[in-house]
Amino acid sequence: MFVMMNAARIGVGLQSLGLMEVAYQNSVAYARDRLQMRSLTGPKAPDKAADPIIVHPDVRRMLLTQRAWVEGSRAFAYWLALQSDVAQNHADAQERERAEGMLGLLTPVVKAFLTDNGFAATNMAMQVYGGHGFIREWGMEQYVRDARINMIYEGTNGIQALDLVGRKLIRDDGAAMRAWLDENTPLLTELEESHGADLSIIGERLHAGFDALRGATGALLARGGENNGMDAAGAVAHPYLTLAGHVMAGAALARGALAARALFRAQDTGGFSSDYLQSRITLARFFADHILPQVEGLACTVRHGADAILAARL
Question: Residue 181, exposed/middle/buried by CB under 10 A (0-12, 13-18, 19+)?
């Protein structure tokens, strides 16, 4: 049963990834075409009655947020798929065991994090359309409704968070999460020693994210050993899962930025355009500036947020 359910959880996460992608493609195409107002710094399309809305900073923020979630989630999901292959086929028994541990730990993260972001991203894509997005003619409302049900399919996302914290994290005293952090720590050194302004800043933000995840993991494990430990852990399980997802997606995007930088330095773009390679760096920088800073607030909630939930009369 669990083999079937784990496959279904990953499948639902990937379904939301597809919805994020199609919603982004539609909203960015609409933003290039839709004319409204002039740019805040003067006309960008003086031959037209107004500028396309893609020049407006807040529209660009919404589009880049969607794209960051799409690309970060896709890389994260690919990495999880690799762990599945290693767990089933690697010749080394220790490697199979390591990958199995990662697969078990992160399956609820992929399901909940991708479906939470799928709903947020499709909602944001509808917002790019303005009032047009709310009517059936454009198809955006269908994406939003499809994305919303994915947060419920195969166990609600609150259940996924309880699985992550109760059945995975506390059961092995955080060993699998610490293993993920330890395996990925060399990435921070690569970023910090890259001698590139964008990559150094990405490394700085990601380092803070790793520290936040380590601290939140320690706080959860400490609370889990108290008398009402499982209730306390359950009260902050969802913010913990979101924190972990942000850090893992940020790490995946950072690896893409490092790979792009390496191709630039080798003066061999590997068939990729220079614009595409630069976009990998820019997107990772956007994620580091706009999304990764959220992890420190989430870590604060994990450390301190349980008591009010347990004490409240509802």
Answer: middle
Distance from C-alpha of 32 to C-alpha of 96, rounded to nearest angstrom: 47
Q: What DSSP state is assigned to residue 33?
A: H
Q: Which of 154, 183, 190, 204 is catalytic?
A: 154
Provide the CB-side half-sphere exposure for 287 (13 A, CA).
32
Q: Could you identify the residue written with the tokens 């005293």? A: 173
- Amino acid at the residue 52: P
Cβ atoms of 166 and 105 closer than 8 Å: no
Q: How far apart are the first and last CA of the chain?
A: 36
DSSP 154: T
CA distance 127 to 58: 11
| pTM given for the model | 0.94
On whether the CB atoms of residues 161 and 176 are closer than 8 A, the answer is no
Query: Per-residue pLDDT tens for 141-200?
Result: 999 999 999 999 999 999 999 999 998 998 889 999 999 999 999 999 999 888 788 999
Q: What are phi and psi of 82, to 5 degrees?
A: -60, -40
CA 82 – CA 76 distance, rounded (Å): 10
Could you confirm whether 100 is annotated as catalytic? no
- State the Cα–Cα distance between residues 241 and 302, nearest whole angstrom: 10
Tell me the C-alpha to C-alpha distance, in Å, between residue 86 and each of 80, 101, 103, 233. Answer: 10, 11, 10, 31
